[in-house]
Amino acid sequence: MAKPFVFKLEKVLEFREQAEEQAKLALAEALRLHQEAKKKLWAVEELVVAHRKTRSENRTADEVWLWQQYDMALQEDLVAAQNRLKQLALNLQKCRAEAVKKSKDRKLLEKLKENQAKKYHEEESLKEQKEYDEMATIRFKPENF
Q: By C-alpha distance, which of 68, 89, 80, 72 is closest to 43?
């Protein structure tokens, strides 16, 4: 009976599987943060639009100044939210590329394992066939012998 196939790089494969899992988790977290930042940007944009609709000509100088100050603060918030979204988009792209790389690394090692297992089983089958051939040759007795 042939002994089972043992992949010598099994620990490396397990390590790569863990690394891929961690990369997927990082990607999911980056995606979540990116979506939250999008929602925050939309909320700030809505505030800006709503605030701009409240502009009227019947205000005192103090009210106009307050309106302008709030408008500038909203603009700063909008720029900050846009910058944060860009930063998170870059991080998301980096995490996606890392997850793809880790997946390729794991798949490469799995393919190597499959190829080695296939080769091992073919060799074992050949050995077994040779043994059967030898036994058949030894047991064969011609009638005229």
A: 80
DSSP state of 5: P
Domain that holds residue 48: 11-106
Identify residue 91 by its one-letter amino acid code. N
Q: Is residue 138 part of a domain?
A: no
The number of folded domains in the chain is 1
Is the residue at 63 inside a domain?
A: yes
Enter the tokens of residue 139: 């047991």
Q: What are phi and psi of 59, to 5 degrees?
A: -115, 155
Report yes or no on 118 lying in a domain: no
**8 φ/ψ angles, rounded to the nearest 5 degrees:** -70, -25
Give 97-124 pLDDT, tens digit per residue.
999 999 999 999 999 999 999 999 999 9
